[in-house]
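Help! Submission page says 'invalid entity' but I think these are all valid:
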Amino acid sequence: MKRHYVQLIAIISGILLIVLSVAGHQDIVQVPVAAVLSIVLAPVFLISVGLLFSAEVIDGDIPFMGY
Amino acid sequence: MFDLNIEGAELFALPFGDIVPYFSVYSATLAAFVLIFILIAAFDRPERQLNIIFGGDAFYEKEIKEGDTRFSRFMAIACGFATLGAVLTGDIFNFTLFAVLVGITNIAIVASAGNHHVLNAAFQYGIVAMIATVPLFGAAAIILATTGTLSIWTLAGMGAVPLLAKAMLILGVMGEGIAPLYIGKAEIIRAQGAPFVLMIHFSSLLLFLRVTEIVLVI
Amino acid sequence: MIEYIIAAMFAGLLLHGIHRKVIARIQGRPGPPIWQEILHTLKFLGKESWIPKTASQGVYVAVVGISIAIWTAALMLLITQESLLLLFALYVLHKIVEHGIGLASGSPYAKFGAIRSVVSAASELPLLSSVALIYLITGSLMLRDIEAYQAINGPLLIVAFPAAVALYLVILSKIHYGPFSIVEAKEIVSGYWTEHFGVWRGLMNAAFGLKTFVLLYTFVVVFIGPIGLPLTLLAILILMITLSFVCAATPMLSPYDSVTVQTLTTGLIAIYIIYLGVFA
């Protein structure tokens, strides 16, 4: 899996999580809905951020399904 | 309307006469997890186990061909759908049927390994699962006889179901859901297939979760 | 929401660090600094990661995501004050995660950890009896109703003491270095997560930090009641230190002893529940 895909996923899910959080606090989105969406997005965000961290040490590409 | 303070608010209900399949916060969460595990069982390849040869530093890896996993994959998916049914149904008799179906598919998943010890474990579990159908269906029969309905929707919060029926229902599900202990035995002698074996544990635990909810609600 | 998740993860990892420190001090060692587990997690995130050749790829990765999702869901449950029964369900699903982690890699050590996790299925039963007792006393399983009940009748810790003991035992059986942590015993290397390294290990560390925080938070909310955030955090810290004392002072039980102790506890609480249901 190429590095910029992971980067894209991390950025999109991160922004969505922040937007959801703000929307939940401002009552734009109902809190339960924001909670459910956060539950779905949190693993995506954390795993992609983790993979980005580890990509630093191995020449940019993430050997995700390659082995 | 179904708004007990046990499993969270009602999200959706589909009235088919007196049989009402419904989503509460609780059952919707369980259903979401079932769907994830069905996807895993459908598309994932099994792990290849490493065995160490004692006395040296050699090891060998079990090779699994795609064709070998076809049967257990099918059964794992069937097991997933049976679990989904058990989680979502609004009818106690349907629940017992799905529980038995989970038991049958569990036997099939283990039995497909084709190892002598694994088959033995599957056979023993099969006997327990068969015996467990008696209290399971017995509970449904008692509930129908005493209350005149099998709909969880109607029975919810009434407290009309006798304690004996609840105890028998739990006993039946315990019999059907005891598979992990037998499969644990099979796993010690190393039957392969992480996604499929995982489905056995998953279905058994979800049966327990669902029966806990049913017993508290009715 | 994400700010709660991240904060709870760091709080949980800090609790793990404090846990290690307290154990070390009791055993006469200097011990690691209390933020060691946080450093640990960040260190793992920066390590080279891949999926082992023998692993079942989907399960190997999915369990990491699912373990994060489960404990995030549990945290959200506490925030939105939903049903305690759902928390029980998530806790039971964590067993699947443990099992999946063990099965996914094909390593015999991880597999033995997974089998031990199946055998110690009895560790879920105390939570069930605890939930049942709370339902019997408060007549509701929604966290908001339980809080309302406690606002009127005082903490459940006094009324439902056996349930509190059961939940304490549940937390103890999930904590690292505890008497019941047979699934990650050192005789099977690291147990079920032996083969998860790098990013996967780091994320699972974070998820387990979240788990510790959520379980302790649940204990405080359910048995002591709404006492405000600073006091709740203090109560969590005290609870964690008592757990560390237990972990430092007890050896790890053998798998059979561990299961026996857990089953006996459940049995005793079940008898108490039946006594309450029939005579009181």
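Support: the input was valid. A stray whitespace character was the problem, and the output above is from the cleaned input. Chain C has one domain: 2-279.
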